[in-house]
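Q: How would the structure tokens look for this protein?
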Amino acid sequence: MARSAHKWSFPARFRSGAYSWKASRLACQRLREAVSEIKKVAKKDPLIGAEGAVRLMEKIWPALEHVDSSSGALGSAVNKTLVDLIPIVVNAPADEKTRSNWLDRLWQAMEDDGVDYLSPVSDRWGEICGSTEVAGRWADELVSTLRSCWSDPSPGGYFHGATACLSCLLESGRYGELLDLLELPRYPSWHYRRYGVEALLAMGRKAEAVRYAEASRGLNEPDSVIDQACEQILISSGLYEEAYRRYGLSAAVGNSYIARFRSVAKRYPMKDKSQILSDLIATTPGEEGKWFATAKELGFYDLALELANRSPCDPKTLTRAARDYLDSEPAFALGSAIAALRWLSEGWGYEVTSVDVVEAYDRAMDAAARLNKVDDVTEQIGQLVEVDDNVAARFVREAVQGHVRATG
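A: Here is the predicted structure in token form.
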């Protein structure tokens, strides 16, 4: 297949040194655009799409070499790019000559890569080889160098093709050799030993795979990732209760508390949701208030209010809940608004202004009106803002009193 068989748009945006120090955002955008272009072509012609994927991988380091990546955004964008592109290369119906050409080009790109942007490519090198025979040949080329590096008594030895070698041994079915090789490093590293877990699973030794993963723990090792691996092994064996008890909660992932709950609930649909939530709350002693939104979304309103008053909860989150549930759950809305005023009086909240105080107060009074409790709530708020005389309490008190005077 000729490299000129398709006219790509993205290479013009990935010339060597194309992006300056402050061009991280633009580079991330261009990566997304390039992936979109490659995916679109790959749907029609997987072979040409894979050629485009290889071509972009070659250009990542030369184009992005001078960009400030300290925020982590660019590294995440590159990783997402590779997660999308590697399967296109792996699954392409390429003949051995074409794939050999891709492998040579990618290997050179990895050697030139100054910050290991292409490490995910190395991690899946055996799959990219496309066959057990090719993977075996690459393993033969790499294994002696890796063995020498890991056998060296002097610390600090590093071989950039380590995971490529392990991946090739795994894909070529050389499980015993792989496991023996993994015994050489002085300290266990999950980055490498995960291939040993895969080898044991391929041999049907699931219980041993769990023990092997557990033995991979250590200083600076990713416990949550190891938990996830062990959990998946137990689940694949039908041992749901053991998986939940040992790993279900610690393996929960998500960028929010409700996302963590959903990840557990999805893996254990047979478990009662209230029990899952209760178990998750127990894992964060002193931070129960952060589960308020999760309890609210699940319709556990009494529990949500209990959590909101047990430990600090974001006042703005509480005020939004009071606004959103004013008509459907006025008692919950009232409790949320009162809790918001409480935490504001104790100094909690980010970039709080008098507008936030007035909003919480108004939502409390709106809910009180629906419940015919205006006098009681007025007295409760008065006691709440008078109980302390710290700076935050005075700020809330003055904001409320000023708003009451202004509105008559």
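Residues 314-407 form one domain.

The chain has two domains: 3-218, 314-407.

Upvote if useful.
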